[in-house]
Amino acid sequence: MDFGLKEIGLTLLIGAFTISGFELILRYVFNKSAIGFLENNMRFIPGAKAPPNESAGTRNDEKTMSALVFLGFSFLFGLLAEDISYKYEDSVQMPFKSIPAMTVKLLSQSVREQMGFEHILSRFDSRISTLVGNLAETPKITPLAKELAQSEAFRKVDQDKGKKVEAWIKKPTNLMADSTSDGELSQKDVAASITGLYYLAKNQVYGNANYYDEMKRIQSRLEFSRSISMIAFLYLLFGLALSSVSLIYKVLAPIFYNRKKAIDKSILKT
Description:
By secondary structure, the chain is mostly helical. The protein has 3 domains: 5-87 and 221-245, no CATH class; 90-121, no CATH class; 125-206, no CATH class. 70% of the residues lie in helices and 0% in strands. The protein has 10 helices and no strands. The protein is flat and about 90 Å long.
């Protein structure tokens, strides 16, 4: 990982978001704190207690130490969150990607196409759907894909499969999901060919210093947004689960308490 100043800053932001979200969930649901940084430095949190009367120097030293510890944990959890998001970078089956896709299904196909949401329903990532649409349904070959096939770009990755992919792009048909014994082209073959061409083109572009800087900035933003969206989705599920448990406890606890109290009274009368 390239630890430039900006990359470190983005990693710290991701880690701070991770810690702050966990702290807020614990505070609002259980009135507890994990590391106490938000409790001691942000008075808007319900139940947060003011620090005892101490000298100004002592309070400043504690705040400085608390800030350093928070930054350290932020960097650590930021790295962990980024590494986890890298693992699922090319996956479209992650819940924070697939659940919005279930909502998009409620829209008509024409509306999805107009809003640019058609690729969300594809089981392949956006690199594939950008060129050939949804392979699992009726493929929609884009002008860019036709230009790449016309220039014989796909055979630069795989000579044999590349020729088949180029011929298929010129005359598209519905494909089987996986390769068959007779060697017919499949959805998996097309996806692998497009992905291979993507990485080949990416390596060529990154070889140019000007393009490298621009693409690096774009990649940093994508990695940041991917990590934040993953953490936010996990915290949404985590918060809903804990809130449900807390709500059930608050509803059932008085009932069991009153029942126990009534049983104790009946025992005392006997």
